[in-house]
Design goal:
Structural class: mainly alpha
Order of helices and strands: HHHHHHHH
Helix content: over 70%
Mean pLDDT: 83
Number of helices: 8
Radius of gyration: 24 Å
CATH class of the largest domain: Mainly Alpha
Shape: flat
Oligomer: single chain
Distance between the termini: 74 Å
């Protein structure tokens, strides 16, 4: 792009900085993923301030976050160049974009691993103590919770008058069941890492219902809330029984 002095390439340092900032702003405005990365960076910054991590840990987190943002900027630049060279669909153009997106994914995975390794030693004990405050679950409570969630999802679908037990309707039965199981795992094992992975799986199952156009985001969220809320209520009730 042209700089304020009319040259194709900026000749002053301030012009170069302005061009770089314009590139970052363009990426943030045009790319949803970049906005999500910035939100994640803010969340990590808040965690760093709250948990009071060490200087070394903060440095490693900052490098990881910066690398993800860098990869997203490069990905956007590659997409723009590919669109200029190949405005029509071409398999090689698709491959170029996919490879660039893969680079962002790898950077994000690395940052997630780094974030977990550093922050888990501060967060996991707190989460473990919170789960430990809940009484022990039992087999009957688990079965009642699963049946309650399943029946409630079917009844709500029937009440709405649309959808089938396995597809469509006013609530996602898959999301309700997946989050019910995730809640059971969390309360039964009381292990943060197992609980986290189970909830990640529940999110992936729920997202598949949206991707397949079987449910809207609202219906999936409704199902997830039903699964977690009802399961938690049933298990807490049974844990208090003698």
């Amino acid at each position: 792009m042209s700089s304020p002095n009319g040259h194709l390439k900026p000749t002053r340092f301030t012009d170069s900085v302005n061009c770089a900032l314009e590139g970052i702003l363009y990426t943030a405005k045009s790319q949803k993923h970049m906005r999500n990365h910035f939100l994640a960076a803010l969340a990590i910054l808040a965690a760093v301030l709250f948990l009071r991590v060490t200087s070394l840990e903060f440095t490693l987190l900052a490098i990881s976050v910066s690398f993800v943002l860098f990869a997203e900027l490069i990905n956007t630049a590659i997409e723009i160049c590919v669109d200029i060279v190949s405005p029509e669909y071409h398999p090689l153009a698709k491959n170029a974009k996919d490879v660039a997106a893969g680079a962002v994914l790898m950077a994000a995975i690395g940052a997630a691993i780094m974030g977990y390794i550093i922050l888990s030693r501060y967060i996991v004990p707190v989460v473990g103590e919170g789960l430990g405050m809940i009484g022990e679950t039992n087999e009957i409570g688990v079965l009642v919770a699963i049946l309650s969630v399943s029946i409630s999802a079917v009844v709500l679908k029937a009440f709405a008058g649309r959808g089938t037990p396995l597809e469509g309707g006013s609530i996602s039965g898959h999301a309700a069941f997946a989050f019910s199981v995730a809640t059971i795992v969390a309360l039964s094992t009381k292990e943060p890492i197992s609980s986290l992975l189970t909830f990640v799986l529940a999110v992936m199952i729920s997202n598949s219902r949206i991707a397949l156009n079987h449910h809207s985001v609202r219906e999936v969220v409704f199902g997830a809330c039903l699964g977690m809320g009802l399961t938690l209520a049933v298990l807490l009730a049974f844990s208090n029984l003698p």
